[in-house]
Every structure is written in C-alpha cells, then in structure tokens.
Specification:
CATH class: Mainly Beta
Number of helices: 0
Helix content: under 10%
Order of helices and strands: EEEEEEEE
Number of strands: 8
CATH architecture: Sandwich
Number of domains: 1
Amino acid sequence: MPDVSYTTTAAANGTATVTVKTRSREKWSVGQITVEATGAPDSATCAVRKNGALVCPLVAAADAGGGDPPIDLTPADVITVSWAGLTVNTACRVLVVYSKEGTR
C-alpha cells in the first residue's frame, strides 16, 4: 500500500493542522492515519475529520487510527488532522496509508 507523509509546526496559539487530499483525479481508500507531535503535553488534543465531520479523536503525542471501514477519499473530499493545546513550534507529523481505487 502506498503512503504519504505531511509535516507542520504548531502556531503561537498552540494549534496545528494538516490537510490531506488525493492527487489529481485519484480516489483513495485510507486504511490508516498515524499522528505524532513530539513532546505534546498530556492535555493536547488531536482530531481526524473528513469534510468537517469527526472520524476519530487520537492521542496528540502519538497514535494511529485505522481498520474497517476505510475512509474513501475522492478529489472533492478533504481529511484534516488538527491538534490543539500544543507548545509553539511543536513538530507535528502525519502518515497516511491508502490504496488507490481499483488496487485494493
């Protein structure tokens, strides 16, 4: 299964967001999303959303969400991974494991 990674850093207000979209006209079936925010305080939060709807909350410092059913992602869709309660400049990483439509 292919994967793609994203990085960002926490802003002065303690938030960080990564936006995940398919490439071009591809359709993805997302099987797992892994997050990491090194040194995140225990009170920090992380949420995965598809088109604004909550898919799952995750532990902000390090966690993975996956399993059935996968998240179908078309070019019209967007997944966001958002953290809150971080220290400014905290490094945040997201790894998305997916299959392309027709290759699962």
